[in-house]
Design a protein that fits this description.
heterodimer, A: mainly alpha, MetI-like fold, B: alpha/beta, 8-stranded mixed β-sheet, 29% helix, 23% strand
């Protein structure tokens, strides 16, 4: 390698930045990311965007069909549910719940999993033994059944959904971080840091962590989609968000009983789940391609 | 030359045994090594891969990790025992009193941190109440010292923006940041081009003079040792086999292994010169019998070599682990 000329513009060319630049060249991924941003904006701006109050019942509009069908009205584009509430408004408000839970669970789980994974991978020995066995046990439970059990014990509610999912979700990032740490700790620069008297905390957080950020970010974004589906599943089963709160999962559950004569009640929230999860998956795949060319199929 | 030194050695290793428990058995990577490093000298440590030279000096700083361990012996630095020192105390010695630069300059820098951050961290670990600005100035000073042009700009760059020689200079800057009394340079030039090698070694020599540092230069290149080191220690299969003032050892090696090493250096000036490699391989370091370890490859071997061989004093500060040392060939 020759004396790499300092790049013309900024000198701050960390590997993370280079990878992010690669990501911006992937058109499909950028389009998907834009989709995700739209959903997030929708969630944030819900009070201004929603045409009606999502909790406002109007029995005269019970199961009112979408605008383009007979009996529909353009101010209630996707029609109304069994209590006459505007479906568009409920979907817009529902985005808040899905996205908030997705982000909260992934952030919390990644934080816990990263610390546990770093400790297990770098300290090894008994610490690794204990953490890895806990992970093994947790991974032995099917995800949904584990969450259903916890929700059954803790009762429904926003905080409990987040906790129920984090209890198992942290194992994913823990495994990834542990594996990456095991590989990274053997590298020369970690040894070099030890040789100049760096502490173990310093080595884990400053030497190893920045170098395993790429796989960690990729895994976290991929998991976001799974978490959103899991939240929808819990709410569908009646264990998640409780009425009258608008959650996409419980909206689909609502619509299930009217599927034959009012298909719109369950279909539109279902499409919303599908679109958001698809957008997140495509965007995270783009991230993965940009961050780790080895993983490209 | 350094005959009998009046001063106490800066680093004194006695009977060091560093072992690795592997699935094949107990590997005695370092088996009873004695080394004295005198203050201010440059000691060259040579030997082929697996001779235990790197492990010996990793042991000094407590850098050997499980399954490896120091099984026996004593390592004294300036009179202070380092074997069995607590983690916190060892950390204060690493980088501050004794610094080590690891073999591969190209991979010894963290790719995710700017080189400035990496130099500053070392200073910070051993900070004694200097402010952040003081530390930065010190980092700039040390970068200028190791010959990095425009240190102010370079400080904010990442390792991949540096060439191999420059990265080795950064490594030296990190090692020298706290002005250690002893620098262990583990193959500082093996990843570099020959021309850059000479630059880095010359830099090391001038820094040593400027800072009055004691240097241990680990290398497999006897040519480097001949040029830069006061004394040389030859290691073979986990043991020290010869030690003495560089010029005398090279002019008249006492151990057949040293002789073999010298004979296997190519000589450009003499077109008829044929490299004479040492036949055979280093023995496996598992379950070694109590006999001369060079026996299988030695042109001088006799039946008396099948016993435990100790270092023998050859006078004038020289020792060799060979019962036939001192015989005239």
């Amino acid at each position: 390698m020759t004396a790499a000329a300092p790049s013309a513009a900024g000198r701050q060319d960390s590997i993370l930045r280079i990878n992010l630049r690669k990501f911006t060249r992937d058109r499909l991924a950028i389009a998907a990311a834009a989709g995700v941003v739209l959903f997030v904006a929708m969630a944030l701006l819900a009070p201004w965007l929603a045409p009606h109050d999502p909790y406002d019942t109007d029995l005269l509009r019970r199961l009112q069909p979408p605008a383009w069908m007979e009996g529909g009205e353009w101010s209630y584009v996707f029609g109304c549910d069994s209590l006459g509430r505007d479906i568009v408004s409920r979907i817009i408000y529902g985005a808040r719940i899905s996205i908030f839970i997705g982000v909260a669970v992934v952030l919390l789980a990644t934080l816990v999993g990263t610390l546990a994974g770093l400790a297990a991978g770098y300290l090894g020995g008994a610490v690794d033994g204990v953490i890895s066995r806990i992970v093994d046990v947790l991974l032995g439970f099917p995800y949904l059944i584990f969450a259903i059990g916890l929700m059954g014990m803790m009762g429904p509610g926003l905080q409990n959904i987040i906790l129920a999912l984090v209890y198992k979700e942290w194992t994913i990032s823990c495994r990834v971080v542990r594996g990456e740490t095991l590989a990274t700790r053997e590298l020369e620069y970690v040894e070099a840091a030890r040789a100049v008297g760096a502490s173990r905390t310093h080595i884990m957080l400053r030497e190893i962590l920045p170098n395993i950020m790429s796989p960690l970010i990729v895994v976290a974004t991929t998991r976001m989609a799974t978490i959103i589906i899991l939240e929808a599943s819990l709410s569908f089963l009646g264990l998640g968000m409780q009425p009258p709160l608008a959650s996409w999962g419980s909206m689909v559950a609502d619509g299930r009983s009217f599927l034959s004569d009012a298909w719109w009640v369950g279909t539109f929230p279902g499409v919303a789940i599908f679109l958001l999860v698809l957008a997140i998956n495509l965007a995270s795949q783009g991230l993965r391609d940009a961050f780790d060319p080895r993983l490209r199929q | 030359m350094n005959a009998i030194p009046a001063l106490a050695p800066l680093l004194s290793i006695r009977g060091l045994q560093t072992q690795f428990q592997t699935q094949l058995g107990l590997v005695k990577a370092v088996d009873g090594v004695d080394i004295d490093v005198e203050p201010g000298e440059c000691l060259g440590v040579v030997g082929e891969s697996g001779s235990g030279k790197s492990v010996t000096f990793a042991s000094v700083l407590g850098l050997v990790r499980p399954p490896g361990r120091i099984a026996a012996g004593s390592i004294r630095f300036d009179g202070r025992e380092l074997v069995g020192l607590g983690r916190g105390e060892m950390r204060r010695i690493r980088g501050k009193e004794i610094a080590i630069t690891l073999q591969d300059a190209l991979t010894s820098l963290n790719p995710s941190l700017t080189v400035g951050a990496q130099i500053l961290e070392t200073l910070h670990e051993h900070d004694e109440g200097r402010g952040a600005r003081g530390l930065r100035e010190q980092a700039l000073e040390i970068m200028a010292l190791v010959g990095i042009p425009a240190p102010g700009t370079r400080l904010a760059q990442y390792p991949h923006e540096f060439s191999g020689g420059m990265r080795q200079r950064i490594m030296l800057a990190i090692a020298l940041a706290c002005r250690p009394r002893l620098l262990i340079a583990d193959e500082p030039t093996s990843a570099l081009d020959v021309t850059i090698q000479a630059q880095v070694l010359d830099l090391l020599a001038s820094l040593r003079r400027e800072l009055g540092m004691t240097v241990v230069l680990i290398t497999h290149d006897l040519g480097v040792v001949a040029q830069y080191c006061d004394r040389v220690l030859v290691m073979y299969a986990g043991q020290a086999v010869e030690v003495g003032p560089t010029r005398r050892v090279i002019a008249d090696p006492g151990h057949p292994y040293t002789r073999g090493l010298i004979a296997s250096i190519p000589k450009l000036a003499d077109p008829d010169f044929r490299i004479r490699p040492i036949e055979g391989n280093v023995p496996e370091l598992v379950d070694l019998p109590d006999e001369c370890r060079f026996l299988g490859r030695c042109p001088l071997a006799i039946s008396a070599c099948r016993t435990r061989i100790d270092m023998r004093d050859l006078g004038a500060g020289r020792q060799a682990r060979c019962i036939r040392a001192g015989e005239r060939q």
